[in-house]
Amino acid sequence: MELRIAQRSTEGTTMQLRRTIAGIAAGVVTCTAGVILGPTTAHAAELGDRSLAAVLTSDGNRFDRNWYDYDIVTEAVLAVLAAKPDSPVKLLTDGSVPLTAFIPNDRAFQVLVHDLSGKRYSSEKTVFNKLVAAVGVDAVESVLLYHVVPGATIVAKDALKADGAKLATALPGASITVDVKSKWLKLIVLKDQDPNDLNPLINPLAFDINKGNKQVAHGIVLVLRPLDL
């Protein structure tokens, strides 16, 4: 699948998230006792190979006026791959690699840019451009990797049994913790490494994007932050 996007400006360093991106290690999920996340090897062989990149770009990945889809995160993935073709973010284009991604909706990025700049922008394209200009492609790469759990296809039914599980992400040394608030209402909060921000909630209506494939995603309402912003 061909991914094309013009490289955006990377001026500014208001967020210090630049880290060396090492190789992705196996065995990335640490769980509470008795919790199993992801399919067994036999079951994994039955899953499809459609990638999350294919799903995210299937609508033409155009900015629009719907703040509750995933145009900004899609453009962020494309921007990183345009600037850094060998980035680990490329895992999202290879559907044969099992992973779980937590993808922030466009409103989540509007909130993040407001937190960083003190200004609320009314255009998805402006929010995206302000984000990249403010923090740079390397930082955007780190944020994206923090939303990816490689090596495990975690569907909703498994996530709802995983209260207290710590998930190692594709950003080396960074993890998120699963906090199941209600199995019945399917309410799950993801605790990130920023102690001062609000933690994202998985949208109960946006579980299991790309279900039936090795790569699945769950929509979240805020951006996960790997350190204090």
TrEMBL record:
UniProt signal peptide: none
InterPro entries cross-referenced by the UniProt entry: FAS1_dom_sf, FAS1_domain
Pfam family, one: Fasciclin
Residue ranges annotated for the FAS1 domain, each copy included: 57-228
Name by which UniProt lists this protein: Fasciclin
Organism expressing this protein natively: Micropruina glycogenica
